């Protein structure tokens, strides 16, 4: 640190101003005695004068005492010092604890425990600080049920807010899903060659729907009314086969890249892609983009490969080309029984039963 000339004839107020001004360029430093002597404002070794000057700065709220490997001082801005000087001792104690907590905020229970103030005095101090817009309450995703406070002049940390994945203290699942879809589409384009020609699958000509006669029995009529149109439209075997063939043909258009292909997207490329796009106004860091990529790896949509200048890249898995319906749907979820309006009446010998249910037979044939 640069040193200035020492003037032993200066009075204490002048030394206070000179010492404070000399400390301003090093606002985030914890000053101890040797550092302050090194500034050259107070004569080296004149401990009494130094302590008098520093105590004056503490009284003016321009310095705050800290204990870091011994006694030390940290700087406050003149504007912040003016705020402190307007407070009562109780209000200053509460505000100081909130100030020390920084952008993580502090729990009201912690403030009470550290300040040891009576509840009425504590609530009065909080009310005064809020009325002066010096503090504000905040939500923490780590402790959603706790009443937290933070200085009004600073923004909560990502640790407290959850970063870009949270909105108003709630997990923003829609935003996460949207960003993963955007990343996946970019990775897919770099993973497969999309052929304009069709695949090997062929479509069967669409067959006319069969119209089944309704039973005269009341239970069967009610069953047909509740399930008939839905099941007949959705679960006809020929319609399902036609739909699946169309999906297979769409997937067949995506051809794998040749062996040795090195242009799979890397983390830096994907981060830059999101940053330079207009998909979101938020800026996502590389670590935040990596979190989304890890989720997609876990979901089996993409995988890590050794490629690119960074030595690691990402490519889409072929199974991910199937739609969510293809991956999750199976014949068990298509059973008509769960949605049948006369399910409680279904039994052998009753008005409807498994042996005479045309919908159940149709499902068994799938």
TrEMBL record:
Comp. bias (Low complexity): 195-205
Q: Does the keyword Nucleus apply?
A: yes
Annotated region described as Disordered, given as residue ranges: 194-218
What GO terms fall under cellular component here?
cytoplasm; nucleoplasm; RNA polymerase III complex
The entry's localization annotation reads: Nucleus
Q: Which InterPro entries match?
A: RNA_pol_Rpc34, RNA_pol_Rpc34-like, WH-like_DNA-bd_sf, WH_DNA-bd_sf
Q: Which residues are in coiled coils?
A: none
Instruction: Write out the GO biological process terms.
Output: transcription by RNA polymerase III
Keywords, ordered alphabetically = DNA-directed RNA polymerase, Nucleus, Transcription
In the UniProt record, does the keyword Transcription occur? yes
What coarse category fits the chief subcellular location reported for this protein?
nucleus
Q: Which family does it belong to?
A: Belongs to the eukaryotic RPC34/RPC39 RNA polymerase subunit family.
Question: Per its database record, what is this protein's job?
Answer: DNA-dependent RNA polymerase catalyzes the transcription of DNA into RNA using the four ribonucleoside triphosphates as substrates. Specific peripheric component of RNA polymerase III which synthesizes small RNAs, such as 5S rRNA and tRNAs.
Q: What is this protein called?
A: DNA-directed RNA polymerase III subunit RPC6
What lineage does the source organism belong to? Eukaryota, Fungi, Dikarya, Ascomycota, Pezizomycotina
């Amino acid at each position: 640190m640069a040193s200035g000339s020492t003037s032993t004839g200066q009075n204490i107020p002048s030394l206070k101003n000179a010492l404070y001004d000399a400390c301003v360029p090093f606002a985030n430093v914890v000053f101890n005695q040797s550092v302050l002597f090194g500034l050259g404002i107070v004569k080296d070794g004149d401990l009494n004068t130094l302590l008098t000057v520093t105590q004056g700065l503490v009284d003016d709220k321009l310095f705050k005492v800290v204990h870091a490997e011994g006694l030390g001082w940290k700087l406050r801005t003149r504007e912040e010092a003016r705020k402190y000087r307007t407070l009562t001792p109780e209000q200053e104690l509460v505000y100081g604890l909130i100030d020390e907590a920084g952008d993580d905020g502090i729990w009201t229970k912690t403030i009470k425990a550290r300040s040891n103030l009576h509840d009425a005095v504590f609530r009065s101090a909080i009310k005064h600080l809020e009325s002066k817009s010096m503090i504000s309450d905040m939500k923490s995703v780590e402790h959603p049920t706790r009443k937290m406070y933070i200085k009004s002049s600073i923004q909560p940390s990502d640790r407290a807010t959850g970063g870009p994945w949270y909105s108003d203290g709630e997990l923003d699942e829609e935003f996460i899903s949207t960003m993963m879809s955007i990343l996946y589409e970019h990775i897919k384009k770099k993973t497969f060659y999309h052929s304009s020609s069709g695949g090997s699958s062929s479509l069967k000509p669409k067959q006319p729907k069969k119209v089944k006669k309704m039973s005269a029995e009341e239970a069967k009529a009610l069953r047909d009314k509740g399930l008939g149109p839905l099941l007949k439209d959705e679960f006809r075997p020929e319609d399902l086969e036609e739909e699946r063939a169309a999906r297979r043909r769409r997937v067949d258009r995506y051809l794998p890249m040749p062996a040795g292909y090195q242009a799979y997207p890397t983390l830096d490329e994907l981060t830059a892609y999101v940053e330079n796009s207009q998909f979101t106004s938020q800026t996502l860091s590389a670590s935040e983009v990596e979190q989304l990529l890890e989720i997609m790896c876990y979901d089996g949509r993409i995988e890590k490969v050794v490629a690119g200048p960074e030595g690691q890249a990402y490519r889409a898995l072929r199974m991910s080309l199937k739609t969510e319906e293809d991956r999750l749907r199976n014949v068990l979820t298509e059973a008509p029984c769960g949605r049948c309006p006369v399910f409680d009446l279904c039994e052998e010998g009753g008005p409807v039963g498994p042996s005479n249910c045309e919908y159940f037979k149709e499902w068994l044939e799938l």
